[in-house]
Design a protein that fits this description.
This protein is an all-alpha fold. The chain is built from eight helices and no strands. It has helices at residues 2-10, 15-20, 25-32, 48-68, 72-88, 92-125, 132-164, 167-184. The longest helix has 34 residues, at 92-125.
Length: 195
């Protein structure tokens, strides 16, 4: 209710109107509504400056939530791109050839992982109809299928990467990815680029 009122009161207005206080007339009426018999509300002396402050806080809160939900994955992806670019010391020409191949490899790995995940969800749904041994064998088979599939995708894209980057930079890429994984898992410090 109150959230709907805040959205309807603030959305669709430009920021200048909001900061000028023009959008706070509904807020002021809402806060001042319900005044006691004396005709004064508990906060009847709220100044425009305080109202603007409340409005700015609401806007910042809303933007903060939006940014927080922007996606942790997007922020990690941006960080990964920056770390890889720095570690490999890519020239603009190399970067232009490298990133499409790298992104295609990443997409192929994601599709493979999603496929395995969907198989696992179906298997988990059918768990009650399987014996404990059959379930364990099926989970183990999915585990090996995941890693074998990833290895074959990585091997296929290794050849493509060698066509766009020197072997030394491809090796640096693998070491950088390994160090990033260790860091995400909490097993190591920041990715090093010197080795």
């Amino acid at each position: 209710m109150a959230v709907d009122w805040v959205y309807s009161g603030l959305l669709g207005r430009n920021v200048g109107d909001i900061l000028d206080g023009k959008s706070f007339a509904p807020l002021r009426k809402h806060v001042l509504r319900g005044a006691g018999r004396s005709g004064r509300s508990f906060c009847g002396n709220i100044s425009d400056r305080v109202m603007r402050g409340i409005g700015v806080m609401l806007i910042l809160w809303w933007w903060g939530i939006s940014w927080g939900q922007e996606s942790r994955a997007e922020r990690l992806k941006s960080l990964r791109i920056a770390l890889i670019t720095e570690a490999l010391e890519l020239t603009p020409e190399e970067a232009q050839a490298f990133w499409p191949v790298y992104n295609a490899r990443d997409a192929a790995l994601q599709r493979h992982r999603e496929e395995i995940h969907q198989h696992y969800l179906r298997l988990r749904g059918a768990r009650s109809s399987l014996s404990a041994q059959a379930y364990a064998d099926s989970v183990s088979a999915l585990y090996f299928r995941l890693w074998e599939g990833e290895a074959s995708i990585r091997k296929a894209y290794h050849e493509r990467l060698l066509k766009v980057l020197p072997a030394e930079k491809v090796a640096k890429l693998y070491l950088t990815e390994f160090r990033m994984l260790r860091r995400v898992l909490g097993e190591g410090g920041p990715p090093r680029h010197d080795r």
